[in-house]
Amino acid sequence: MTAATVLSRGLVLRRVSYSDTSQIVTLFTRDAGIVTLIAKGAHRLPARSSKIQSPFDLAGWYEVLYRRGASEVQLLYEGRLIEGFEHLRRRLDGYLEACFALEVMPRFFSPADPHPDFLRGALIYFMLLASAGGRLPLRLHFYSFLLREGGIGPEWRRCAECGVAVAPESGSFRVPVGIVCRRCRSTGDWAVMEKTVRYLALEAGAPWGAVPTLDPGVKVLEEAWSMLRAVLLHHLERPPRSLQYLRD
Questions:
Q1: What is the rounded CA–CA span in Å between residue 142 and residue 117?
Q2: Does residue 176 have a cis bond before it (omega within 30 degrees)?
Q3: Burial of 105 (0-12, 13-18, 19+ CB in 10 A)
Q4: Alpha-carbon distance values, 187 to 118, 123, 135, 232 (Å)
Q5: What is the residue extent of each domain of the chain?
Q6: Parallel, antiparallel, or unpaired for β 178-180 and 73-83?
Q7: pTM for the full model?
Q8: In this predicted structure, what is the pLDDT of residue 131?
Q9: Is 200 within 8 Å of 157 (Cβ atoms)?
Q10: In angstroms, rounded to a whole number, what is the distance separating the alpha carbons of residues 140 and 214?
Q11: pLDDT in tens, 43-60
Q12: In CATH terms, is domain 5-83 a member of 2.40.50.140?
């Protein structure tokens, strides 16, 4: 491996056919953040001399060797599948959750801006999507983490306007900044349940590693997702196409 080549691992966010035999692949890599690679010959039947085992697939975790250059699209030399998350292909609901995450992630992080802690959390999220139920708490857990890692997580404990500590029962929600106190409240702020604010405040600081065990009830979960979804959509140029297919 020369100084111009990079060996890393990455999660496939997007892939499109470039020709009858090649692909353009966008990965969220551990070391370099988001990179776009051209995988020449990825659609060909694998040969003994080929360093690309098979076409790249969405949500696959790959080891890649590519050449770093000035171009926006780097040349891929080798690609080897490490984890395919096959359970996502067996359950439509889990696959739709993964597609939404894959569509959202590149809009919150820039190329050459690695976020290894977030990437580790995303891999855990995809593993936990094997669960047959309880996807809404897991989704809230993930997107709270994404907003926090992206530096735009809403404020749940202090007024987003004046900075004073706010009791959950006395605040209102303002998109996209979070909770505002009674003094700073204005027309258009949301009246939300106290339990929902407490739940989101806990989620905002919760570590990764296990399926969330807190069960605040269906109404709280649904309201919490409405709030986080509003924040996500505010920061995106356009609604993700996959959003319409999510199931609570």
A1: 12
A2: yes
A3: buried
A4: 35, 40, 33, 21
A5: 5-83, 89-245
A6: unpaired
A7: 0.88
A8: 72
A9: no
A10: 11
A11: 665 544 457 767 889 999
A12: yes
